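In response to the reviewer comment on reproducibility (Comment 2.3), we provide here a single inverse folding case reported in full, input and output, so that an independent group could reproduce the run without further information from us. The structure tokens appear first.
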């Protein structure tokens, strides 16, 4: 038996709570794992609070991320005792997730846990931090180099934004962090932000083309914020879009693309191919200051995960929430 955060939805309505489950109830997979730590991402918050139809089948064990060790494996690349990290692949949506003591997964989904990180540190990074790294890699593929100008990070106190801010700053970029939490300016500057702006400067409808400012952008917000970021990106710049905290719509025009040659790079972390995942985690191990994770993350027990998910969706949390399973 093991404990899990189980999401249920039936005639009686929606319920999210800690349940004792038997290993025989786990779905099919070629790797059985023991989860040491999981985390709360925005998508987890949507699922656990039933704010959005993230979950595709019921009941569902929540948790799109996990880190721990392999217990049993019939997969050729994995053996008992191997340390792993998991992000995405529909886990916590269509396949039971990792806010649980055990999970049965597909070996093709797992990435070796870098030796530089503990399971707690890996989940302080989680999908949010891994997505931030994918964004940085996309900016670099487009040619962005340190010293080329200001890089905007929106939703900067969130998980993606916090990790993106510290990554970009450590790589030598001048980071401007946008946030609606003025009290968190010192936190963002401690992560490496050179300047902090109010998200209100970007959140309302703006002109199709605005004064050129950003060499590049990491956007986790969407909607008018993304549209304004595009309108303010310099000639030949690139914007990596990975979230929709403000909304899924994009009320923009083609002007930044056809008059300034701006590139909008979409970032998907859920089904990113294995080579890209492994590269991202290797880059995180190399480029992320693990000490910064202590400032970014707070750890809570599994019993508090649902409560913290509600706080996450209410915008009352900053950084990352690590969930200790044991």
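Designed residues, in position order:
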């Amino acid at each position: 038996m093991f404990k899990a955060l189980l999401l249920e939805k039936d005639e009686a309505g929606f319920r999210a709570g800690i349940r004792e489950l038997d290993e025989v109830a786990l779905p099919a997979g070629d790797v059985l794992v023991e989860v040491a730590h999981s985390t709360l991402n925005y998508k987890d918050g949507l699922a656990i609070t039933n704010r959005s139809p993230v979950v595709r089948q019921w009941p569902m064990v929540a948790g799109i991320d996990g880190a721990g060790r392999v217990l049993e494996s019939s997969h050729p690349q994995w053996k008992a005792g191997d340390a792993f990290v998991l992000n995405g692949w529909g886990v916590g949506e269509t396949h039971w997730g990792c806010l649980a003591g055990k999970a049965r997964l597909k070996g093709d989904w797992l990435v070796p846990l870098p030796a530089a990180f503990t399971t707690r540190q890996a989940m302080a990074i989680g999908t949010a931090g891994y997505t931030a790294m994918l964004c940085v890699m996309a900016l670099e593929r487009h040619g962005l180099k340190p010293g080329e100008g200001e890089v905007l990070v929106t939703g900067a106190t969130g998980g993606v934004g916090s990790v993106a801010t510290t990554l970009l700053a450590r790589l030598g970029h001048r980071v401007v962090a946008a946030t609606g939490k003025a009290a968190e300016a010192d936190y963002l500057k401690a992560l490496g932000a050179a300047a902090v702006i109010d998200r209100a400067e970007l959140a309302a409808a703006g002109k199709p083309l605005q004064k050129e400012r950003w060499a590049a952008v990491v956007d986790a917000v969407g909607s008018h914020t993304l549209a304004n970021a595009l309108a303010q990106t310099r000639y030949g710049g690139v914007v990596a879009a990975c979230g929709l905290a403000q909304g899924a719509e994009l009320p923009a025009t083609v002007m930044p693309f056809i008059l300034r040659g701006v590139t909008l790079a979409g970032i998907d972390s859920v089904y990113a191919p294995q080579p890209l995942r492994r590269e991202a985690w290797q880059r995180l191990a190399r480029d992320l200051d693990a000490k910064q994770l202590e400032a970014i993350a707070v750890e809570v027990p599994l019993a508090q995960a649902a409560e913290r998910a509600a706080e996450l969706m209410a915008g009352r949390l900053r950084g990352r929430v690590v969930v200790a399973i044991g």
